[in-house]
């Protein structure tokens, strides 16, 4: 294979020159490939959809981690759903204030292959004593879960195959039940220019459930179609309203060095274009 064509959209897409195919396997659940591309570094795809690249993964992982954790201010227990490439785990582990991190990934093969072929993503995070890796379906885990988390991060693929359930009404209800009183849920929610229905469906599911809900965004080059939205659903309204000054102080206090996230980006990311506001019923 000399090039990899993404098949996420039938009529529009991107391709990558494959300089070196590192791994290709049909796991029990999905088709997994990891290859090298001179511009984007190592690239991982599942079932025809690019999941992550070494070159731009920091946009995505920093925004899904530092936004909720710093907005919360006192997050101790974190749950990651999905995240098998390890990038989200690495970013959460950088918060020394966090006591425990549970990651629930459905496919052991993704974890194993990414540890081997994408080691910079996890960067040793699996060895962190605060980490508890659970191989299970995120929905099943939450249905049986009696623990409470301060932040839940859904680092899921698009809503097909095993990930479809992570966009269901029942999933958001289970996340709401497993959050502490000031808890925050965030989730990958597609690029609205191409996947507006995904945003509409999530908005419909979270609006009656959480005291505060919205979306924020970042343009991640790998996820084609412009800015990607991240769902935000919180048990109180204060966390989203956290001031720029407080976010700046918390960020400095964390001593985390980022490449994308800063407090100004954090605040600005919640300003949405009009067509997205209209779609979610907040024009
Ligand atoms: N960043 C990517 C994106 O934007 O599309 C997604 C990251 S990828 C690591 C998502 C992970 O979710 C995959 O490893 C996949 O195996 C896992 N996953 C899919 N369905 C799941 C489910 N029901 N429960 C837990 N993990 C799931």
TrEMBL record:
Q: What is this protein called?
A: Polyamine aminopropyltransferase
InterPro entries (UniProt xref)? PABS (IPR030374), PABS_CS (IPR030373), SAM-dependent_MTases_sf (IPR029063), Spermi_synthase (IPR001045), Spermidine_synt_N (IPR035246), Spermidine_synt_N_sf (IPR037163)
The record's GO molecular-function terms, alphabetically, read: spermidine synthase activity
- Please give the family membership noted in the entry: Belongs to the spermidine/spermine synthase family.
* A GO-annotated cellular component: cytosol
The UniProt annotation places spermidine binding at 61, 85, 155-158
Q: Which PANTHER family match?
A: SPERMIDINE SYNTHASE, SPERMIDINE/SPERMINE SYNTHASE
Please name the Pfam families in this protein's record: Spermine_synt_N, Spermine_synth
What species does this protein belong to?
Denitrificimonas caeni
Tell me where in this chain the PABS domain is found. 1-235
Q: Which UniProt keywords apply?
A: Polyamine biosynthesis, Spermidine biosynthesis, Transferase
Per the record, the domain of life is Bacteria
Q: Where does S-methyl-5'-thioadenosine bind?
A: 30, 105, 137-138, 162
């Amino acid at each position: 294979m000399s090039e990899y064509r993404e098949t996420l959209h039938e009529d529009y897409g991107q391709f990558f020159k494959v300089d070196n195919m590192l791994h290709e396997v049909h796991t029990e659940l999905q088709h997994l490939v990891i290859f090298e591309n001179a511009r984007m570094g190592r690239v991982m795809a599942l079932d025809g959809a690019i999941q992550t690249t070494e070159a731009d993964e920091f946009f995505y992982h920093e925004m899904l981690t530092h936004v909720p954790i710093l907005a919360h201010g006192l997050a101790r227990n974190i749950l990651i759903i999905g995240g098998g490439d390890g990038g989200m785990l690495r970013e959460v582990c950088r918060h020394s204030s966090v006591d425990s991190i549970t990651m629930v990934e459905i496919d052991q093969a993704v974890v194993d292959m990414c540890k081997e072929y994408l080691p910079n993503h996890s960067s040793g995070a699996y060895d962190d004593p605060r980490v508890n890796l659970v191989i299970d379906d995120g929905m099943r885990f939450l249905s049986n879960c009696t623990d409470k988390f301060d932040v839940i991060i859904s680092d899921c693929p698009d809503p097909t195959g095993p990930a479809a359930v992570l966009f269901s009404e029942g999933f958001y209800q289970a996340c709401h039940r497993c959050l502490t009183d000031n808890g925050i849920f965030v989730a990958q929610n597609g690029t609205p220019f191409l996947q507006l229905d995904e945003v509409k469906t999530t908005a419909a599911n979270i609006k009656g459930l959480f005291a505060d809900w919205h979306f924020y965004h970042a343009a991640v080059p790998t996820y084609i179609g412009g800015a990607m939205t991240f769902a935000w659903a919180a048990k109180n309204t204060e966390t989203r309203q956290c001031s720029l000054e407080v976010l700046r102080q918390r960020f400095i206090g964390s001593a985390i060095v980022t490449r994308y996230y800063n407090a100004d980006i954090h605040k600005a990311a919640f300003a949405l274009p009009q067509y997205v506001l209209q779609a979610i019923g907040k024009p």
